[in-house]
Amino acid sequence: MKENKYDNPDFFDQYSRMTRSVEGLKGAGEWHMLQKMLPEFEGKRVLDLGCGFGWHCAYVVEHGAVSVTGIDLSEKMLEEARKRNNSPRIAYKCMAVEDFEFLPDTFDIVISSLTFHYLASFDDICRNVNRCLSQGGTFVFSVEHPVFTAYGSQDWYCDQEGNRLHWPVDNYFGEGLRRSTFLGEEVVKYHKTLTTYINGLLKSGFEITELVEAQPQKELVETILDMKDELRRPMMLLISATKK
Amino acid sequence: MKENKYDNPDFFDQYSRMTRSVEGLKGAGEWHMLQKMLPEFEGKRVLDLGCGFGWHCAYVVEHGAVSVTGIDLSEKMLEEARKRNNSPRIAYKCMAVEDFEFLPDTFDIVISSLTFHYLASFDDICRNVNRCLSQGGTFVFSVEHPVFTAYGSQDWYCDQEGNRLHWPVDNYFGEGLRRSTFLGEEVVKYHKTLTTYINGLLKSGFEITELVEAQPQKELVETILDMKDELRRPMMLLISATKK
Fold first, then answer.
1. pTM, whole model, 2 decimals?
2. What ipTM score was computed for the predicted complex, to two decimals?
3. By CA distance, what is A146's nearest residue in B?
4. Which fold has domain A5-21+39-147+193-243?
5. pLDDT tens, position by position, B137-189
6. Which A residues 53-82 touch B at CB under 8 Å?
7. Minimal CA–CA distance to A179: which of A193, A191, A197, A196?
8. Residue environment code for B9-21, b if the CB has 16+ CB neighbours within 10 A, otherwise e
9. Do A172 and B233 make contact, defined as CB atoms within 8 angstroms?
Protein backbone atom coordinates (compact mmCIF):
# COMPACT_ATOMS: atom_id res chain seq x y z
CA MET A 1 0.00 0.00 0.00
CA LYS A 2 2.86 2.35 0.67
CA GLU A 3 5.00 1.04 -2.15
CA ASN A 4 7.66 3.59 -2.94
CA LYS A 5 8.59 2.76 -6.51
CA TYR A 6 9.63 6.34 -7.20
CA ASP A 7 12.68 6.03 -4.96
CA ASN A 8 13.91 3.11 -7.05
CA PRO A 9 16.79 4.73 -9.05
CA ASP A 10 16.01 3.06 -12.41
CA PHE A 11 12.31 3.81 -12.17
CA PHE A 12 12.97 7.36 -11.06
CA ASP A 13 15.39 7.85 -13.94
CA GLN A 14 12.76 6.65 -16.41
CA TYR A 15 10.07 8.78 -14.80
CA SER A 16 12.30 11.84 -14.95
CA ARG A 17 12.49 11.47 -18.73
CA MET A 18 8.74 11.43 -19.29
CA THR A 19 7.37 14.48 -21.07
CA ARG A 20 5.33 15.41 -18.00
CA SER A 21 8.50 15.38 -15.88
CA VAL A 22 10.62 17.37 -18.30
CA GLU A 23 8.03 19.91 -19.40
CA GLY A 24 5.83 20.05 -16.31
CA LEU A 25 2.12 20.70 -16.57
CA LYS A 26 2.05 21.49 -20.27
CA GLY A 27 3.68 18.10 -20.91
CA ALA A 28 0.77 16.28 -19.22
CA GLY A 29 -1.94 15.29 -21.71
CA GLU A 30 -4.80 15.81 -19.25
CA TRP A 31 -3.63 19.18 -17.91
CA HIS A 32 -5.69 21.27 -20.36
CA MET A 33 -8.83 19.66 -18.92
CA LEU A 34 -7.81 19.53 -15.26
CA GLN A 35 -6.79 23.20 -15.36
CA LYS A 36 -10.34 24.24 -16.31
CA MET A 37 -11.72 22.38 -13.29
CA LEU A 38 -9.52 24.15 -10.75
CA PRO A 39 -11.04 26.85 -8.53
CA GLU A 40 -9.69 30.34 -7.80
CA PHE A 41 -6.55 30.02 -5.65
CA GLU A 42 -6.25 33.66 -4.55
CA GLY A 43 -5.79 33.76 -0.77
CA LYS A 44 -6.41 30.03 -0.35
CA ARG A 45 -4.71 27.33 1.72
CA VAL A 46 -3.98 24.35 -0.51
CA LEU A 47 -3.02 20.71 0.01
CA ASP A 48 -1.56 18.62 -2.83
CA LEU A 49 -1.69 14.86 -2.21
CA GLY A 50 1.08 13.13 -4.15
CA CYS A 51 2.78 16.30 -5.38
CA GLY A 52 5.68 14.65 -7.23
CA PHE A 53 7.95 17.25 -8.81
CA GLY A 54 5.76 20.02 -7.41
CA TRP A 55 4.41 21.36 -10.69
CA HIS A 56 0.90 21.78 -9.33
CA CYS A 57 2.20 23.37 -6.11
CA ALA A 58 4.07 25.97 -8.16
CA TYR A 59 1.00 26.64 -10.32
CA VAL A 60 -1.17 27.13 -7.25
CA VAL A 61 1.29 29.60 -5.70
CA GLU A 62 1.59 31.50 -9.00
CA HIS A 63 -2.18 31.86 -8.89
CA GLY A 64 -2.27 33.49 -5.50
CA ALA A 65 -2.48 30.71 -2.90
CA VAL A 66 -1.19 31.87 0.50
CA SER A 67 0.23 28.46 1.36
CA VAL A 68 0.59 25.04 -0.20
CA THR A 69 1.46 21.78 1.47
CA GLY A 70 2.77 19.21 -1.00
CA ILE A 71 3.13 15.68 0.31
CA ASP A 72 4.77 12.75 -1.44
CA LEU A 73 6.10 9.37 -0.40
CA SER A 74 9.24 9.72 -2.48
CA GLU A 75 12.24 11.66 -1.17
CA LYS A 76 13.76 11.68 -4.65
CA MET A 77 10.65 13.29 -6.08
CA LEU A 78 10.66 15.95 -3.38
CA GLU A 79 14.37 16.66 -3.92
CA GLU A 80 13.49 17.53 -7.51
CA ALA A 81 10.44 19.49 -6.36
CA ARG A 82 12.58 21.61 -4.06
CA LYS A 83 15.01 22.32 -6.93
CA ARG A 84 12.49 22.99 -9.68
CA ASN A 85 9.47 24.38 -7.89
CA ASN A 86 10.64 26.15 -4.79
CA SER A 87 8.75 28.90 -3.00
CA PRO A 88 8.52 30.18 0.57
CA ARG A 89 4.81 29.52 0.31
CA ILE A 90 5.28 25.81 -0.50
CA ALA A 91 6.00 23.26 2.24
CA TYR A 92 7.01 19.86 0.91
CA LYS A 93 6.62 16.92 3.27
CA CYS A 94 7.86 13.39 2.70
CA MET A 95 5.17 10.99 3.87
CA ALA A 96 2.46 8.63 2.70
CA VAL A 97 -0.97 10.12 2.07
CA GLU A 98 -2.28 7.65 4.66
CA ASP A 99 0.06 9.06 7.32
CA PHE A 100 -0.79 12.72 6.86
CA GLU A 101 -2.71 14.27 9.73
CA PHE A 102 -5.83 15.73 8.19
CA LEU A 103 -6.73 18.31 10.86
CA PRO A 104 -10.21 19.84 10.70
CA ASP A 105 -10.67 22.99 8.64
CA THR A 106 -7.01 23.48 7.70
CA PHE A 107 -7.32 23.77 3.90
CA ASP A 108 -9.64 25.51 1.42
CA ILE A 109 -8.65 23.39 -1.57
CA VAL A 110 -7.28 19.86 -1.87
CA ILE A 111 -5.84 18.69 -5.19
CA SER A 112 -4.33 15.40 -6.26
CA SER A 113 -2.95 14.27 -9.58
CA LEU A 114 -2.75 10.58 -10.48
CA THR A 115 -2.08 9.35 -6.94
CA PHE A 116 -5.18 7.65 -5.54
CA HIS A 117 -4.93 4.55 -7.73
CA TYR A 118 -1.82 3.72 -5.70
CA LEU A 119 -3.88 3.67 -2.50
CA ALA A 120 -6.07 0.77 -1.38
CA SER A 121 -8.95 2.74 0.13
CA PHE A 122 -10.72 5.66 -1.51
CA ASP A 123 -13.27 5.94 1.30
CA ASP A 124 -10.50 6.80 3.76
CA ILE A 125 -9.23 9.53 1.45
CA CYS A 126 -12.69 11.05 1.10
CA ARG A 127 -13.30 11.09 4.82
CA ASN A 128 -9.89 12.60 5.55
CA VAL A 129 -10.06 15.22 2.81
CA ASN A 130 -13.56 16.21 3.82
CA ARG A 131 -12.48 16.68 7.41
CA CYS A 132 -9.49 18.89 6.62
CA LEU A 133 -11.44 21.13 4.22
CA SER A 134 -13.22 24.30 5.23
CA GLN A 135 -16.96 24.59 4.60
CA GLY A 136 -17.56 24.96 0.83
CA GLY A 137 -13.98 23.88 0.14
CA THR A 138 -13.00 22.25 -3.13
CA PHE A 139 -11.55 18.83 -3.90
CA VAL A 140 -10.21 18.26 -7.42
CA PHE A 141 -8.35 15.13 -8.44
CA SER A 142 -7.39 12.85 -11.29
CA VAL A 143 -7.05 9.07 -11.19
CA GLU A 144 -6.57 6.32 -13.70
CA HIS A 145 -10.01 5.47 -15.07
CA PRO A 146 -11.70 2.24 -13.88
CA VAL A 147 -11.82 1.08 -17.51
CA PHE A 148 -8.06 1.51 -17.60
CA THR A 149 -7.34 -0.28 -14.31
CA ALA A 150 -9.86 -3.17 -14.33
CA TYR A 151 -8.06 -5.76 -16.45
CA GLY A 152 -4.72 -5.16 -14.83
CA SER A 153 -2.20 -5.38 -17.67
CA GLN A 154 -2.88 -1.76 -18.67
CA ASP A 155 -2.21 -2.63 -22.27
CA TRP A 156 -4.14 -3.06 -25.51
CA TYR A 157 -5.33 -6.44 -26.68
CA CYS A 158 -3.37 -7.00 -29.90
CA ASP A 159 -3.40 -9.49 -32.75
CA GLN A 160 -0.35 -11.57 -33.66
CA GLU A 161 1.05 -8.73 -35.75
CA GLY A 162 0.80 -6.40 -32.77
CA ASN A 163 -2.15 -4.38 -34.07
CA ARG A 164 -4.26 -2.91 -31.28
CA LEU A 165 -7.62 -4.65 -31.58
CA HIS A 166 -9.39 -3.12 -28.59
CA TRP A 167 -9.01 -2.40 -24.87
CA PRO A 168 -9.79 -5.39 -22.62
CA VAL A 169 -12.01 -5.07 -19.54
CA ASP A 170 -12.35 -7.91 -17.06
CA ASN A 171 -12.85 -8.46 -13.32
CA TYR A 172 -14.39 -4.98 -13.13
CA PHE A 173 -16.18 -5.57 -9.84
CA GLY A 174 -13.15 -7.27 -8.29
CA GLU A 175 -11.61 -4.20 -6.69
CA GLY A 176 -8.11 -4.23 -5.35
CA LEU A 177 -4.55 -4.99 -6.28
CA ARG A 178 -3.34 -5.02 -9.90
CA ARG A 179 0.22 -5.51 -11.06
CA SER A 180 1.26 -3.88 -14.30
CA THR A 181 4.46 -2.81 -15.99
CA PHE A 182 5.19 0.91 -16.07
CA LEU A 183 8.53 2.31 -17.22
CA GLY A 184 10.03 -1.17 -17.22
CA GLU A 185 9.15 -1.91 -13.59
CA GLU A 186 6.35 -3.85 -11.96
CA VAL A 187 4.03 -1.35 -10.32
CA VAL A 188 1.23 -2.12 -7.87
CA LYS A 189 -2.03 -0.23 -8.29
CA TYR A 190 -5.54 -0.60 -6.86
CA HIS A 191 -8.51 -0.87 -9.18
CA LYS A 192 -11.69 0.78 -7.97
CA THR A 193 -15.06 0.97 -9.65
CA LEU A 194 -16.68 4.19 -10.69
CA THR A 195 -19.31 3.51 -8.04
CA THR A 196 -16.59 3.58 -5.39
CA TYR A 197 -15.25 6.94 -6.59
CA ILE A 198 -18.62 8.66 -6.91
CA ASN A 199 -20.36 7.21 -3.87
CA GLY A 200 -17.23 7.57 -1.76
CA LEU A 201 -17.45 11.31 -2.35
CA LEU A 202 -21.21 11.52 -1.84
CA LYS A 203 -21.22 9.45 1.34
CA SER A 204 -18.48 11.53 2.95
CA GLY A 205 -20.34 14.80 2.40
CA PHE A 206 -19.20 16.08 -0.99
CA GLU A 207 -21.31 17.43 -3.80
CA ILE A 208 -20.00 16.42 -7.24
CA THR A 209 -19.51 19.53 -9.36
CA GLU A 210 -17.88 18.10 -12.49
CA LEU A 211 -16.67 14.83 -13.96
CA VAL A 212 -14.44 14.61 -17.01
CA GLU A 213 -12.92 11.66 -18.80
CA ALA A 214 -9.77 13.24 -20.19
CA GLN A 215 -9.21 13.35 -23.93
CA PRO A 216 -6.09 14.63 -25.66
CA GLN A 217 -6.20 18.00 -27.39
CA LYS A 218 -7.26 17.92 -31.03
CA GLU A 219 -3.89 19.19 -32.26
CA LEU A 220 -2.12 16.32 -30.52
CA VAL A 221 -4.50 13.75 -32.00
CA GLU A 222 -3.72 15.07 -35.45
CA THR A 223 0.04 15.34 -35.07
CA ILE A 224 1.28 12.64 -32.69
CA LEU A 225 1.45 9.00 -33.77
CA ASP A 226 -0.85 6.67 -31.82
CA MET A 227 -2.53 9.62 -30.07
CA LYS A 228 -5.78 8.74 -31.88
CA ASP A 229 -5.83 5.58 -29.79
CA GLU A 230 -6.43 7.75 -26.71
CA LEU A 231 -9.94 8.27 -28.09
CA ARG A 232 -10.56 4.51 -28.10
CA ARG A 233 -10.73 4.08 -24.31
CA PRO A 234 -10.77 6.42 -21.32
CA MET A 235 -7.48 6.50 -19.41
CA MET A 236 -8.05 9.18 -16.81
CA LEU A 237 -10.96 10.26 -14.70
CA LEU A 238 -11.06 13.86 -13.40
CA ILE A 239 -13.51 14.84 -10.69
CA SER A 240 -14.25 18.06 -8.82
CA ALA A 241 -16.40 18.24 -5.71
CA THR A 242 -17.23 20.68 -2.95
CA LYS A 243 -17.70 20.11 0.77
CA LYS A 244 -21.39 20.58 1.53
CA MET B 1 -33.88 7.88 -33.27
CA LYS B 2 -37.48 6.88 -32.83
CA GLU B 3 -36.93 3.32 -33.93
CA ASN B 4 -39.83 1.24 -32.75
CA LYS B 5 -38.38 -2.24 -32.62
CA TYR B 6 -40.82 -3.30 -29.91
CA ASP B 7 -43.75 -3.20 -32.31
CA ASN B 8 -41.99 -5.71 -34.57
CA PRO B 9 -44.00 -8.93 -33.84
CA ASP B 10 -41.00 -11.31 -33.74
CA PHE B 11 -38.97 -8.99 -31.52
CA PHE B 12 -41.94 -8.36 -29.26
CA ASP B 13 -42.58 -12.07 -28.98
CA GLN B 14 -38.97 -12.65 -27.92
CA TYR B 15 -39.06 -9.74 -25.49
CA SER B 16 -42.26 -11.06 -23.93
CA ARG B 17 -40.47 -14.27 -23.04
CA MET B 18 -37.61 -12.60 -21.18
CA THR B 19 -37.60 -13.20 -17.44
CA ARG B 20 -38.10 -9.48 -16.80
CA SER B 21 -41.25 -9.54 -18.97
CA VAL B 22 -42.72 -12.69 -17.47
CA GLU B 23 -41.87 -12.05 -13.83
CA GLY B 24 -41.86 -8.25 -13.78
CA LEU B 25 -39.56 -6.33 -11.47
CA LYS B 26 -38.27 -9.31 -9.53
CA GLY B 27 -37.18 -10.86 -12.83
CA ALA B 28 -34.92 -7.89 -13.60
CA GLY B 29 -31.37 -8.42 -12.35
CA GLU B 30 -30.81 -4.77 -11.46
CA TRP B 31 -34.14 -4.21 -9.65
CA HIS B 32 -32.80 -5.01 -6.17
CA MET B 33 -30.37 -2.09 -6.56
CA LEU B 34 -32.67 0.33 -8.38
CA GLN B 35 -35.39 -0.21 -5.79
CA LYS B 36 -33.12 1.06 -3.01
CA MET B 37 -32.48 4.27 -4.95
CA LEU B 38 -36.16 5.16 -5.34
CA PRO B 39 -37.64 7.93 -3.19
CA GLU B 40 -40.88 7.86 -1.19
CA PHE B 41 -43.84 7.84 -3.61
CA GLU B 42 -46.61 8.67 -1.13
CA GLY B 43 -48.70 11.52 -2.54
CA LYS B 44 -46.35 12.14 -5.48
CA ARG B 45 -46.94 12.77 -9.18
CA VAL B 46 -44.71 10.46 -11.20
CA LEU B 47 -43.55 10.23 -14.81
CA ASP B 48 -42.08 7.00 -16.22
CA LEU B 49 -40.14 7.47 -19.47
CA GLY B 50 -40.20 4.25 -21.49
CA CYS B 51 -42.59 2.37 -19.23
CA GLY B 52 -42.80 -0.85 -21.27
CA PHE B 53 -45.13 -3.37 -19.61
CA GLY B 54 -45.83 -0.89 -16.80
CA TRP B 55 -44.16 -2.80 -13.98
CA HIS B 56 -42.63 0.34 -12.50
CA CYS B 57 -45.88 2.29 -12.89
CA ALA B 58 -47.70 -0.37 -10.90
CA TYR B 59 -44.99 -0.38 -8.22
CA VAL B 60 -45.18 3.38 -7.88
CA VAL B 61 -48.97 3.33 -7.49
CA GLU B 62 -48.76 0.50 -4.95
CA HIS B 63 -46.41 2.75 -2.97
CA GLY B 64 -48.83 5.64 -2.75
CA ALA B 65 -48.28 7.82 -5.82
CA VAL B 66 -51.37 9.90 -6.62
CA SER B 67 -50.79 9.72 -10.36
CA VAL B 68 -48.39 8.13 -12.80
CA THR B 69 -47.90 8.91 -16.46
CA GLY B 70 -46.23 6.06 -18.33
CA ILE B 71 -45.07 6.83 -21.84
CA ASP B 72 -43.74 4.39 -24.39
CA LEU B 73 -43.21 4.39 -28.14
CA SER B 74 -44.61 0.90 -28.58
CA GLU B 75 -48.35 0.34 -28.79
CA LYS B 76 -47.85 -3.40 -28.26
CA MET B 77 -45.97 -2.76 -25.03
CA LEU B 78 -48.72 -0.47 -23.78
CA GLU B 79 -51.42 -3.00 -24.70
CA GLU B 80 -49.68 -5.43 -22.36
CA ALA B 81 -49.22 -2.71 -19.74
CA ARG B 82 -52.95 -1.96 -19.75
CA LYS B 83 -53.69 -5.67 -19.29
CA ARG B 84 -51.09 -6.49 -16.66
CA ASN B 85 -50.63 -3.26 -14.75
CA ASN B 86 -53.84 -1.32 -14.89
CA SER B 87 -54.91 1.31 -12.38
CA PRO B 88 -57.12 4.40 -12.45
CA ARG B 89 -54.07 6.28 -11.22
CA ILE B 90 -51.92 5.24 -14.20
CA ALA B 91 -52.21 7.02 -17.56
CA TYR B 92 -50.38 5.25 -20.38
CA LYS B 93 -49.51 7.33 -23.42
CA CYS B 94 -48.11 6.04 -26.69
CA MET B 95 -45.41 8.47 -27.87
CA ALA B 96 -41.69 8.96 -28.16
CA VAL B 97 -39.89 10.45 -25.17
CA GLU B 98 -38.76 13.24 -27.49
CA ASP B 99 -42.38 14.15 -28.30
CA PHE B 100 -43.67 14.35 -24.75
CA GLU B 101 -44.53 17.86 -23.60
CA PHE B 102 -42.51 18.40 -20.45
CA LEU B 103 -44.57 21.18 -18.86
CA PRO B 104 -42.99 23.07 -15.94
CA ASP B 105 -43.53 21.74 -12.43
CA THR B 106 -45.88 18.90 -13.37
CA PHE B 107 -44.11 15.95 -11.67
CA ASP B 108 -42.36 15.28 -8.35
CA ILE B 109 -40.49 12.19 -9.50
CA VAL B 110 -39.29 11.06 -12.94
CA ILE B 111 -38.11 7.49 -13.42
CA SER B 112 -36.79 5.65 -16.44
CA SER B 113 -35.61 2.10 -16.86
CA LEU B 114 -33.23 1.14 -19.70
CA THR B 115 -34.60 3.63 -22.22
CA PHE B 116 -32.15 6.49 -22.68
CA HIS B 117 -29.56 4.45 -24.60
CA TYR B 118 -32.17 4.33 -27.39
CA LEU B 119 -32.17 8.15 -27.59
CA ALA B 120 -29.53 10.22 -29.36
CA SER B 121 -29.35 13.15 -26.95
CA PHE B 122 -29.04 12.90 -23.19
CA ASP B 123 -28.72 16.66 -22.75
CA ASP B 124 -32.24 17.13 -24.16
CA ILE B 125 -33.61 14.59 -21.69
CA CYS B 126 -31.93 16.32 -18.76
CA ARG B 127 -33.22 19.73 -19.73
CA ASN B 128 -36.75 18.43 -20.27
CA VAL B 129 -36.87 16.35 -17.11
CA ASN B 130 -35.49 19.20 -15.04
CA ARG B 131 -38.14 21.55 -16.38
CA CYS B 132 -41.08 19.27 -15.65
CA LEU B 133 -39.92 18.48 -12.10
CA SER B 134 -40.96 20.42 -9.03
CA GLN B 135 -38.24 22.02 -6.87
CA GLY B 136 -36.35 19.29 -5.02
CA GLY B 137 -37.88 16.65 -7.29
CA THR B 138 -36.14 13.35 -7.94
CA PHE B 139 -34.85 11.80 -11.15
CA VAL B 140 -33.85 8.11 -11.02
CA PHE B 141 -32.89 6.13 -14.10
CA SER B 142 -30.97 3.17 -15.43
CA VAL B 143 -29.10 2.95 -18.74
CA GLU B 144 -26.75 0.53 -20.35
CA HIS B 145 -23.28 1.32 -19.03
CA PRO B 146 -20.83 3.17 -21.33
CA VAL B 147 -18.43 0.21 -21.00
CA PHE B 148 -21.23 -1.98 -22.32
CA THR B 149 -22.21 0.27 -25.24
CA ALA B 150 -18.82 1.60 -26.46
CA TYR B 151 -17.63 -1.24 -28.70
CA GLY B 152 -21.00 -1.78 -30.27
CA SER B 153 -21.32 -5.55 -30.63
CA GLN B 154 -22.44 -5.88 -27.00
CA ASP B 155 -20.79 -9.26 -26.78
CA TRP B 156 -17.76 -10.84 -25.14
CA TYR B 157 -14.49 -11.24 -27.00
CA CYS B 158 -14.06 -15.01 -27.25
CA ASP B 159 -11.34 -17.41 -28.31
CA GLN B 160 -11.85 -19.96 -31.09
CA GLU B 161 -13.48 -22.38 -28.67
CA GLY B 162 -15.98 -19.73 -27.66
CA ASN B 163 -14.49 -19.06 -24.21
CA ARG B 164 -15.15 -15.53 -23.00
CA LEU B 165 -11.70 -13.92 -22.83
CA HIS B 166 -12.72 -10.41 -21.79
CA TRP B 167 -15.08 -7.53 -22.63
CA PRO B 168 -13.86 -5.33 -25.50
CA VAL B 169 -13.91 -1.53 -25.27
CA ASP B 170 -13.19 0.63 -28.31
CA ASN B 171 -14.22 3.97 -29.82
CA TYR B 172 -15.22 5.10 -26.32
CA PHE B 173 -15.14 8.81 -27.12
CA GLY B 174 -16.97 8.32 -30.40
CA GLU B 175 -20.49 8.86 -29.13
CA GLY B 176 -23.51 7.97 -31.20
CA LEU B 177 -25.09 5.17 -33.13
CA ARG B 178 -24.25 1.51 -32.47
CA ARG B 179 -25.90 -1.49 -34.10
CA SER B 180 -26.06 -4.70 -32.12
CA THR B 181 -28.10 -7.87 -32.11
CA PHE B 182 -30.66 -8.25 -29.33
CA LEU B 183 -33.24 -11.04 -29.30
CA GLY B 184 -32.29 -11.99 -32.85
CA GLU B 185 -32.93 -8.53 -34.32
CA GLU B 186 -30.65 -5.65 -35.20
CA VAL B 187 -31.21 -2.91 -32.65
CA VAL B 188 -29.96 0.67 -32.84
CA LYS B 189 -28.60 2.23 -29.67
CA TYR B 190 -26.62 5.36 -28.87
CA HIS B 191 -23.39 5.13 -26.96
CA LYS B 192 -22.67 8.00 -24.58
CA THR B 193 -19.71 8.52 -22.30
CA LEU B 194 -19.96 8.68 -18.55
CA THR B 195 -18.97 12.34 -18.83
CA THR B 196 -22.08 12.97 -20.91
CA TYR B 197 -24.34 11.32 -18.34
CA ILE B 198 -22.88 13.03 -15.29
CA ASN B 199 -22.22 16.47 -16.73
CA GLY B 200 -25.54 16.45 -18.58
CA LEU B 201 -27.24 16.18 -15.20
CA LEU B 202 -25.01 18.76 -13.50
CA LYS B 203 -25.28 21.31 -16.30
CA SER B 204 -29.06 21.15 -16.37
CA GLY B 205 -29.39 21.83 -12.66
CA PHE B 206 -29.36 18.45 -10.95
CA GLU B 207 -27.39 17.36 -7.93
CA ILE B 208 -26.16 13.76 -8.16
CA THR B 209 -27.30 11.83 -5.10
CA GLU B 210 -26.19 8.29 -5.96
CA LEU B 211 -24.49 6.30 -8.70
CA VAL B 212 -24.52 2.51 -8.83
CA GLU B 213 -23.08 0.09 -11.34
CA ALA B 214 -25.52 -2.80 -11.01
CA GLN B 215 -24.27 -6.20 -9.88
CA PRO B 216 -26.35 -9.35 -9.65
CA GLN B 217 -27.40 -10.61 -6.24
CA LYS B 218 -24.98 -13.01 -4.59
CA GLU B 219 -27.47 -15.89 -4.64
CA LEU B 220 -27.84 -15.54 -8.41
CA VAL B 221 -24.07 -15.50 -8.94
CA GLU B 222 -23.80 -18.74 -7.02
CA THR B 223 -26.71 -20.55 -8.65
CA ILE B 224 -27.12 -19.37 -12.24
CA LEU B 225 -24.70 -20.46 -14.95
CA ASP B 226 -22.68 -17.62 -16.49
CA MET B 227 -23.98 -15.13 -13.89
CA LYS B 228 -20.42 -14.82 -12.53
CA ASP B 229 -19.54 -13.14 -15.81
CA GLU B 230 -21.75 -10.22 -14.81
CA LEU B 231 -19.00 -9.35 -12.32
CA ARG B 232 -16.45 -9.11 -15.14
CA ARG B 233 -17.81 -5.92 -16.69
CA PRO B 234 -20.47 -3.36 -15.78
CA MET B 235 -23.62 -3.65 -17.86
CA MET B 236 -25.93 -1.10 -16.28
CA LEU B 237 -25.50 2.32 -14.79
CA LEU B 238 -28.06 3.55 -12.21
CA ILE B 239 -28.17 7.20 -11.22
CA SER B 240 -30.33 9.24 -8.89
CA ALA B 241 -30.36 13.03 -8.83
CA THR B 242 -32.44 15.86 -7.39
CA LYS B 243 -33.48 19.17 -8.91
CA LYS B 244 -31.54 21.91 -7.12
1. 0.94
2. 0.93
3. B147
4. Rossmann fold (3.40.50)
5. 999 999 999 999 999 999 999 999 999 999 999 999 999 999 988 888 888 99
6. none
7. A191
8. eebbeebeeeebb
9. yes
